[in-house]
Amino acid sequence: MGQRPALVSWADHHRKAASQSLQQLIAEPVQSFLTCLAVGVALALPAVLWAFLQNVEVVAGNIQTSARFTLLLEQDVSLETAQLMAAELETRSDIELVEAIDRRDALARFAEEVGFSELVDNLHNNPLPNSLQLHPGTSLTVSELDDLADALVALSGVEQVVFDTQWQARLQAAITASQRLTLGVGVLMVLGAVLILGNTVRLGIEARREEITVIKLIGGGDGFARRPLLYAGLWSGSAGGFFGAVLVALLFWFVSPPAERLFDLYGLDRRFIGLGLPGMLILTAVGGLAGLVSAWSTALIHLRRAQPR
Amino acid sequence: MINFERVSKRYEHRDALRDVSVEIAAGEMVFLTGHSGAGKSTMLRLLMLLDRASSGRLLVNGNDVATIRGARIAKYRQDFGIVFQDHRLLFDRSIFDNVALPLEIAGFHPRDIGRRVRAALDKVGLLGRESANPVVLSGGEQQRVGIARAVVARPKILVADEPTGNLDPGLSAEIMGLFDAFHRVGVTVIVASHDLALISRLRHRIITLKEGRLIGGVGS
Question: What is the set of domains in chain A, with CATH numbers?
């Protein structure tokens, strides 16, 4: 009888604060809906960017695998030697396939492509060397490809290595920059959500000023006064995050058919990557966390001011 | 139990209390009186830790209240029941929930809360009205709900600041009778009131203040 262990009554009050603050949100449906929608929109933008990047990376990864080197050999290297070199290079772990190209075939192909076959026929000497066409391993990064290029140049009998890693470096840099941008936008938007929720919590404190004052006068601590506010923040934030997830899902439902057609045109057998269930849960959790943080900080500032008179 | 030792309180432009020394024993009932601005409310504010003395010491149960700070203030206030002139009920909830608030803060079991709230409402003659909103009650009834809230957690000290200030003489006598009843069961009761005609009928010590100084009722 009487007072109970602190932990039990604390848990009891948590339950009560949680349900009361939820009821208060439901009692003001339009206001609550607008707040949650604003939070949802703020959280949807970084989520969309993130998912978009996931898709870009998949496409970029596929393009990267089609990279290949052309090794122009010195003039005095014979086709037999070239074939030996090819066999030897193929044993390297970072190389998938090497093909020796006969200089005559190369000239013929050149003539055909350029359309000067008569001119080429009149050449006394074939100006083209024998060459090797080399497909590197698909999992190599840009810097590993650069290392491989350096190693190939150093081989004896190799005159020149033709390989443009620059566009791949550019693509990689663009992706990295976009990731940073997404992170930055994400942080800003979560901050925006925190501010939106903070304003809602502040209005809640104004509306409940008398209650907070009375609670303090009759011996309730800050924790007791703050608890319903924290739950109000948690509920609005989570609902906002969930709204955001639904918005993103709707947007992707709209975008995915043309995006998958684009993949198709690139010869990629890929589905468009959306948020998925884990992503939606994470977004809801991020919203809830933003709500808690914002309620906590707002309560910290404004409860001090609500000192009883 | 409560000991003001040469307590002064200076607000920016005036002295609210000057060198006040008075002792209130456990179980005693006292009235604080004087014109408005004489320092009654200041004494109660210092007692409730809503303000701090500029000089002197205030001892409650032998402890200097100046040492009570931060989170311990809330715990300290739980030993008191407070009745306000304007009762300060919360109109967004039922009479029951208003009275239950101190028990929730103190962490009572919901079953005990129901029992105690009904007992407190019974004492002030409002049993059976607990599900109503206090807004439908008359001024005197609202003040009785305020008293039920103040006593529901069975505090050792009951403090009332002009509890009859807004009530007609008949209701005022009724309310004072309630305080007297709590005094008789052992609660220390401190009532600030300027209604001399009413409080002089009740034969308890009257502490009189004038311009922040104590001019009567020092000894018991």
Answer: 12-63+170-305 (no CATH), 68-164 (3.30.70.3040)
Residue type, B165: G
The pLDDT tens digits of the residues spanning A232-290 come to 899 999 999 999 999 999 998 898 888 888 888 877 777 788 888 888 999 999 999 99
Query: Six-digit token pair at B26?
Result: 């456990």
**What residue has token string 């809602």?**
A200
Pick from A206, A272, A193: which is nearest to A233 by CA? A193
**What is the tens place of the pLDDT at every residue in B113-130?**
999 999 999 999 999 898
- Per-residue burial over B161-192, b if 16 or more Cβ lie within 10 Å, else e, is bbbbbebeeebbebbbebbeebbeeebbbbbb
Q: Which of A7, A218, A309 to mutate to test the interface with B (most CBs of B within 10 A)?
A: A218
Phi, psi angles (nearest 5°) of residue B155: -75, 160
Neighboring chain A residues of B107 at a CB cutoff of 8 Å: 3-4, 6, 8-10, 12-13
A209 reaches B (C-beta below 8 A): no
Encode burial over A59-75: b for 16+ CB neighbours within 10 A, e otherwise: beebebeebebebbbee
Residue A194: what residue type?
A: V
